[in-house]
User: Which sequence fits this backbone?
């Protein structure tokens, strides 16, 4: 008999006692080393452990000596080696089948789910929007040139996602697991179940969070680099500037901030600077402002399927703001440029 055969027989005898906590310290180390040798060994151990838990639950172990029964079977088979599957089948014959299935699922399927979980990334093209349903049924709307990374399965005490760009979150309520949105500017928004909008483009010098309903906590670093948290109330917008660490809070109807997810553009006494920012995302263009006086204007209006040219003509008629397309010699330029003067 080879050393491998001896090891196999020793482990075969030790596993039942290991599950019951009856092994010595040396025997326990031998079993643990065997488990670490191969992934299949770990799965076998989980199966046997699950079977023993089920057996214990039914109090079968009080009336049936499984080790003795197995030794009898071994003797009758002239010491023929019994496979792990045969071993588990014989124990299973003594168990309640529904309970056995439930326990095996709990131990096996849980491990398999954790093993196959992986990060998923959703991106939107310039000028486009999309929506995605997360594993917990949270619905996320992504604005133009945005990306969202999230796990294919939420595990642990929190539901964490990463956002670059703009998104509206309709979070499924779960008081035991907070929902966390991390941005490229090292800030986080924590919620349990609520509706809110986050704008956090990597190239922008600010992050804005607009709360529609519920409650959120905005975590950030102040000018001194210390961690801070501000709680938002519904119908409020928080603007954070990472470079200076400053924050500003505004009351808002939320219409302008979240209309994009429904394919609309809503201006509610919105400054021209913010308007151009919104139009740039929606129509994938860059605006070049030639006069500072234009930044002093603000507008109110609602647009949906209108072309960009028609919206700009509205500004021209109402406030004598002129515009024109700029030609570019750079072949690599992906966006059209429009001069506002």
Assistant:
């Amino acid at each position: 008999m080879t050393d491998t055969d001896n090891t196999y027989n020793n482990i075969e005898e030790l596993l039942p006692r290991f599950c019951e906590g009856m092994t010595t310290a040396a025997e326990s180390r031998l079993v643990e080393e065997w488990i670490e040798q191969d992934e299949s060994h770990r799965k076998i151990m989980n199966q046997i452990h699950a079977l023993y838990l089920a057996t214990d639950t039914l109090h079968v172990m009080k009336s049936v000596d499984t080790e003795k029964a197995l030794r009898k079977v071994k003797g009758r088979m002239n010491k023929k080696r019994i496979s792990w599957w045969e071993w588990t089948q014989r124990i299973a014959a003594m168990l309640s089948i529904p309970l056995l299935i439930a326990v095996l699922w709990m131990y096996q399927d849980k491990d398999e789910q954790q093993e196959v979980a992986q990060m998923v990334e959703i991106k939107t093209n310039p000028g486009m929007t999309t929506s995605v349903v997360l594993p917990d049924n949270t619905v996320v709307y992504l604005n133009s040139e945005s990306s969202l990374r999230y796990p294919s399965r939420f595990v642990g005490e929190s539901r964490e996602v990463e956002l670059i760009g703009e998104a509206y979150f309709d979070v499924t309520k779960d008081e035991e697991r907070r929902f966390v949105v991390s941005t490229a500017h090292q800030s986080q928004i924590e919620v349990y179940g609520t509706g809110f909008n986050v704008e956090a483009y990597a190239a922008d010098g600010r992050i804005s969070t607009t709360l529609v309903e519920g409650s959120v906590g905005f975590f950030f670093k102040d000018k001194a680099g210390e961690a801070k948290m501000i709680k938002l109330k519904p119908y409020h917008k928080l603007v954070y500037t990472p470079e200076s660490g400053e924050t500003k809070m505004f009351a808002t109807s939320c219409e302008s901030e979240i209309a994009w997810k429904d394919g609309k553009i809503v201006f509610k006494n919105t400054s021209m600077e913010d308007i151009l920012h919104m139009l740039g995302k929606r129509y994938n263009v860059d605006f070049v402002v030639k006069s500072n006086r234009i930044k002093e204007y603000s507008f109110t209006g609602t647009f949906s399927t209108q072309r960009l040219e028609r919206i700009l003509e509205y500004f021209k008629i109402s406030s004598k703001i002129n515009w024109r397309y700029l030609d570019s010699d750079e072949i690599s330029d992906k966006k059209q440029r429009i001069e506002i003067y």
